[in-house]
Amino acid sequence: MSKNLLFIPGPVTVAESVLAAAARPLIDHRGPEFKALLRRISARMQPVFGTQTAEVLILGSSGTGGLEAAVGNLFGPGDRVLACPIGVFGQRLIAIARNFGCEVEILDTPWGSGTDPSALRARLNAPDGKRFDGVLLTHNETSTGAQNDMAALAEAIRGYGAYTVVDSVSGLAASDFRMDDWEFDIVVAASQKALAAPPGLAMVAIAPRAWERIGANTGAQRFYFDLRKAREFAAIGETPWTPPVSVVFALDAALDEFERTGAAAVHDRHARYSAAVRAAARALGLELFSQDGAHSPTVVAIRLPDGIDGDAIRTSLRETRGVVVGGGQKELKGKIIRIGTMGDLTQTDVLGALGALEIALLEAGAPVQAGMGVQAALKLFLEADQPAAV
């Protein structure tokens, strides 16, 4: 069986040890073995979220399910929320909030940039007297290759009192995150991104203050994604509904890999791989879609030259060289490609994918010089691997 290299923003290439764990025989999801497994994962996830006080619940769903749970349990009809989208997935958060009857105001940001903390602070403190019950934030936006400065946004919100929901589905575990220090209320992640497990689980970290709000939100419309019920069952080491047991096995093994490598080294790897891809793009004369100061460590969005169809490039890479990259969404369709850096990838894999991209661009008639991108990435890798001077 041929193997494709996944350079998409998720699902990602999964390590053999994680795949093997997913193939284990199933167990009773109401039995003692699963109880120990679930509690172990929740405890191990706390330092990844940067919390000692928030409870981490494991939901059988995609990341979007976790976001629906966060918004639907915190807010309801008539609540005013300020949404800060920086791409397609920020817009999805808006759709979720509106579906629950929230009145949503949008703080617009040009795609490719991060939310401006001063603009956020100014809107929250505007003299119009309107108060917001919540603020919706995106940590990392895979549709544009941009990442927010979450520490700066947290400082802009500090003291305002609104409840925060953070979409960190594609950001958590790839860079430092400090939920407690930044005083976020609910943060959502998923199994198939930087932790490099198969898709199927959302991890939702809920601060004590948020539980008070959830308990008081008696009019909320919730059943499968009722966080109160998930909390009740977590207390006895279970989930309310049948969980994807095989994915739970895999996530536990993925956390083994994460802890064995060390958080700092994992963060450095994502930063290094994304920097190498950006260096290659610049050396080829290609424009990065994300702006300086807002580059994501988990996905690089590259604008293609006029006349070059991004979807045709993707097809060529996939069908002739086994390299799978992401494409543009909505108005960016065909205009950009997105190269993910998450998963069980090596420097050799990155260099191979960049070489394949060069060939596909040359075959499409793009004005690039062969070898320049790979050389730039290789140079960055070699410099990063040099021991520090004493």
Written account of the structure:
With 390 residues, the chain is an alpha/beta fold. It folds into 2 domains: 23-259, Type I PLP-dependent aspartate aminotransferase-like (Major domain) (Aspartate Aminotransferase, domain 2), CATH 3.40.640; 262-385, Alpha-Beta Complex (Aspartate Aminotransferase, domain 1). It is 43% helix and 15% strand. The chain has 14 helices and 14 strands. The chain has helices at 16-22, 32-49, 63-74, 88-99, 117-124, 150-157, 179-182, 208-216, 227-234, 245-261, 263-283, 310-321, 347-363, 372-385, and strands at 5-7, 55-60, 80-83, 103-106, 134-138, 140-141, 146-147, 163-167, 186-190, 201-206, 287-288, 299-303, 323-327, 336-340. The strands form 3 sheets. The protein has a 7-stranded mixed β-sheet, sandwiched between helices. Strands 1-13-14-12-11 form a 5-stranded mixed β-sheet. Strands 6-7 form a two-stranded antiparallel ribbon. α1 runs antiparallel to α10 (245-261), α3 (63-74) packs across α4 (88-99) and α5 packs parallel to α6 (150-157). The longest helix is centred in the last third of the chain and has 21 residues, at 263-283. The model has no long low-confidence stretch (mean pLDDT 96).
